[in-house]
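TEACHING EXERCISE
Course module: macromolecular assemblies
Task: Read the component lines below, then compare them to the predicted structure of the full complex.
Student: A.B.
Group: 4
Components provided:
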Amino acid sequence: MPKPLAKKVLLVGWDAADWKVINPLMDQGLMPTLDDMVNHGVMGNLATLRPVLSPMLWNSIATGKRPDKHGIMGFMEPDPQTGGVRPTTSTSRKVKAIWNILTQRGYKAHVVGWFAGHPAEPINGICVSDLFPYATAPLDKEWPLAPGAVHPESMRKTFAGLRMHPAEVTEAAILPWIPRAAEIDQEKDKGLQSFAKILSENCSVHNAATWILQNEPWDFLAVYYNGIDHFSHGFMHFHPPRMEGIPEDKFEIYKDVVNGGYRFHDMMLETLLELAGPETTVILVSDHGFHSDHLRPRGIPAEPAGPAVQHRNFGVVCMRGDHIRQDERIYGATLLDVTPTILTLYGLPVGEDMDGRVLVQAFEEPPEITRIPSWESEPGECGMHSADVRMDPAAAQAVLQQFVALGYIQPPSEDQNKAVEVAVREQQYNLARVYLDSRRYHDAVPIFEELKTKWPDETRFAQHLAQCYLALGRRAEAKKILEWLLTYEPPKRPAKPAEGEQPAEGAEAAQGGPAQAQPAAVPPTNGQPAEAQPAAQAVENATAAAPVPPADLHAPAALTAEPAAEGTEPEKKEPRPRPWADLLMGIIQFEEGDMDSALEWLLKAEQADPRLPDLHLRIGETYLRQKRTNDAERAFMRALDIDGDSPEAHLGLAMVYLRQRRNEEAAEQALLAVGLQHFLPMGHFYLGVALARLGHRERAALAFETALSMLPGLMAAHRWLATLYTHPGGDPEKAARHRGIFLQMRKRRQEMAQA
Amino acid sequence: MITIVSGLPRSGTSLMMQMLAAGGMTILTDGERRADEDNPRGYYEWERAKLLPREPNLIAEAEGKAVKVISQLLLALPASYRYQVVFMERPLAEVVASQAEMIRRRGTAGPPLGREQMISALQVHRNLVMNWIKAASNISLRVVPHHDLLGDPMSVSQTVQQFVGLPLDVAAMAAQIDPSLYRQRVT
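Instructor-supplied answer key:
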């Protein structure tokens, strides 16, 4: 077993934390603790997974596995106890989390508030579930902890006393965040109640974590805070600069809440670090980012988990500790990498069935990484719920049906049946999107087909099915669906999700936490203070019947689309245009080699919704094919106007500049692209081409080698390396090897073409 | 304090209710479900218990009384009351056989599961419920094996009386045991 590289590990989860908000605050000295951690450790983007839904993501962080393996498939699941639905529970997780593995190896591991962490697991340490902080009654009434919220049971009373009730949030706590709180008419505007709820819940989580650090022996502590996500869902509309449609008086009242939320988390981090001590390795992560600028959507899709459209594809990662590099940036990290990295810190093997990798770049010296086939088959007590309390939904439904048949319980109501149906549907949908995200199109297709057949009015299923067909080269089928969608008249849908259609966690925050928790105070709807609603609501209504833009468009090229803003025209009477369908039609034409037709579709999409980021990348690619490099440059620039952090747009510009022989600019754009997303083989390749042309042979060779490490079949890179290594001072042996590989690949390609 | 008699359906809950009633305990029942071939001495049920998942505070009506709440519905009990639960246990093979017979007589339809699958599902359900009870700080629990009750009615009645903490007539409780009503015995 390799030598451990960390004595203790503190894993801090900040849901939805985003460098785009953090960086300006650090620059102003307003997040000094994280700033210090960044300066003495490594930091970088943490790429999320799709669908960008927090229960799935946080369990991927804790297991190193995609959701199809860990089994947490969304916000809600059928409830075998009531016949209705409930927030997804820890008994549904099928694999070991990092705290189970550490328990199995005898470490003292604690976990506080992890998403989908209820009931608390019987680990070798304290486990506090995510139901722990929710206030279920007014302060003057008894406020019992949910059964199963704390393990061990003997700690229940202690932890119950650590909770803070929303009603305990005093004026003194509110005024630094909302100095003009006195102007709020609390009868109409529930923003303060929402604020107090989020603040108190996160204080409760923090109290539990700090109590453990102060009173318990520990080797590992994972603590999850939902505050940034909930403040963002509730108040990002008021974050500067003021969005169109947000009343100025409300903007002035709430504009500092999001920044205040981040600063508050920084203060809590300070306490955690002090208590953890300098010998502790600290890892801070978020599961996704949150649009805080001009990309903030002005409408929320009227579908389950619709508020997830506000999420950005990159969260944050920051690590500090012994053997960790200092003041460095790391690239290409995904949230799947967190658990393999923690295992390596403890000198433990990484499971080969884990989908993530060790963040080697974060270490001063490359760590020794050992592997085992799977932790799931390793014997020993791991502190998971025992198999005899994990009930599969089918068995649970059978028991309920039996008791109904016996006359002992009432049959589930129509509402409950509907809620279960919707929960199961969304789980299936999310599973198919996991397959889509991991490019397992063959697995995704039958699920989308079934969903489309059963729920034809939910055009998102058809849309994703078309994407899969496209990725599989089944263009005719994709086209057929798109033609149907382009003429489809959707029925009017309710603006708010039905029961069981649990929205994203932000809205959940505003609705008082998981369904079984009764809020002590009635918060606003949709995560926004009530009087912020009219403008946003008008847009939301307008988008209610509109299909959702593609969230995981990466077929067939590696161009990804962020969840896009939708609905800029609130009161349209004519059928809504479907820019995403136009976009897909454009992609089909592109694939079929008809660039004129492709451009026609893409420009139609642009006319309907110019804010689709992926659209401009496609337009740029099409112009490039047409050798219209100036037009292509403009298109990629438009993409950057929409999202300055788009690696694909920088990559597109690199291609343009290479065509135009503007090699320095090409190198600069390629560097920007790989800086944003390290795992971008074509970015390294174009960087290599630009550097080679500029005469930087060694750096060019390094870039080509990097590209090949990511994409070994990149034939042109072998040819470039063969040439570069042939030069005086080069490496004839390597040159010969790359030439050999290139020739072999070219021969194979020719044979395949002939066949 | 609310006294609850619970367990899986067909595990002896009606019998325990009958014993408590005979012992002098105040029972919360509405008599809506009448005695039949499956329970010749009556069910001692409180129909509104079925509404607990939607209206948990209905349980307030049982304050100071004993009420039958089957295992599934225990999970709907609000945490704001204190309960003492007498939980009836019976071999699951017998429970499943008895339930099957009752479903047949009622002319309703159970789930399409085989006997072993049903036993397994009920086992998990039972474990879930017991874990839930054990995790709840406002519930005290006494498990009463059905076989023990039939084998030594007096001793078990005393145990239950002590658990309930009321001056019940233990002899009257024990006298309710009628082995002839014990069907679906598998051992």
